[in-house]
Amino acid sequence: MNTAVLLSDINLIANNSRYILQNINLEFNYGDCVAIIGPNGAGKSTLLKIINALIKPTSGKIKIFEEDISNKIKNKIGYIPQSNYFDPFLPISVKEVISIGLSAKYGILKKLSYNDSQLIEDIAKNVGIIDLINTPIGKLSGGEAQKLSIARVLAQDAKLILMDEPLSNLDNKAQKDILNTIDFVYQQQTVTILIVLHNLSQIPKSCNKLLFISNGQIVKFGKKEDIFNNKQFQELYNL
Questions:
Q1: In CATH, what number is assigned to the domain containing residue 225?
Q2: Which residues pair with 214 in a beta bridge?
Q3: Domain end position, chosen among 132, 158, 184
Q4: pTM here?
Q5: Going by C-beta distance under 8 Å and a sequence separation of 6 or more, which residues neighbour residue 132?
Q6: pLDDT at residue 224, rounded to an integer
Q7: Under 8 Å between Cβ of 132 and 144
Q8: Rounded mean pLDDT for each run of 10 residues along the chain, 239 residues in total
Q9: What range does the domain containing 70 cover?
Q10: Are strands 192-196 and 209-214 parallel, antiparallel or unpaired?
Q11: What contacts 218, CB < 8 A, 6 or more positions away?
Q12: Would you say 153 and 99 are in contact if contact means Cβ atoms under 8 Å apart?
């Protein structure tokens, strides 16, 4: 199994007959780390939501790990939204949120074993929030909340991780921490990562491919160096 995501003739048309996404044909290989870039309103986040079955395309077909999307396949997909809002009065700890990932994998009725608890602590340590393991989630900073989202996805043992601008609204230090966490996860896990970004300086080192989208259409998809040498890309980003 080499293909992680296959999108065939995907179109998404709004009520005013405007194309949000048009003629999207893409194949992401298992183990790819792909940065999805482009101007605001290009359709980047929409593309992630279609892959995650949050939005149904007007036409076209989607295959995840060479299968149609089902509950079984959805459990293999980890989705990290653009921002995480936690009710400051919600009495749920970091450890309990990470355990939700295990529930997605094993079922909500399974009682956590000693090994499960150890796994949760190991994951929290790997993403740099072990010292927050018993902290209520309402007290987390923006960067800490994003690390928690990554930890939850790791506990889920997701094979496809979708990140929608995970660095937005974070200060420089928090952005660097998240980028280092993404690189660590990619190096340690056998996963496919698709990450929507707006700022070119935010592309993780681990990303081996770039997808450049503009006006709902693919402009270029391929290796990083090929994209950066694309004239239209250079003009858009004033390179």
A1: 3.40.50.300
A2: 217
A3: 158
A4: 0.89
A5: 94, 124, 140, 144
A6: 82
A7: yes
A8: 92 89 96 92 94 94 92 88 72 90 66 83 92 92 89 90 89 89 87 90 90 92 82 70
A9: 1-76+160-171+194-239
A10: unpaired
A11: 23, 24, 25, 26, 211, 212
A12: no
170 vs 152: CA distance, rounded Å: 19
- CA 175 to CA 127: how far, in whole Å? 13
Examine the domain organization and report whether 64 and 99 are in the same domain. Answer: no
Dist. CA 232–CA 238, nearest whole Å: 10
Q: Closest Cα to residue 139, out of 77, 89, 83?
A: 89
As beta bridge partners, residue 213 has 218
Residue type, 157: D
* Helix, strand, coil content of the chain in percent (nearest 5): 40, 25, 35
CB distance 47 to 208 below 8 Å = no
By the 8 A CB rule, do 101 and 154 touch? yes
The type of residue at 213 is I
Residue 1: helix, strand or coil by DSSP?
A: coil
Residue whose C-alpha is closest to residue 166's, from 195, 140, 144: 195
The b-or-e profile of 142-172 (16+ CB within 10 A means b, else e) is: bbbbbbbbbbbbbbbbbbbbbbbbbbbebee
How far is Cα 230 from Cα 233, in angstroms, rounded to an integer? 5
Antiparallel, parallel or unpaired: β 209-214 and 217-223: antiparallel
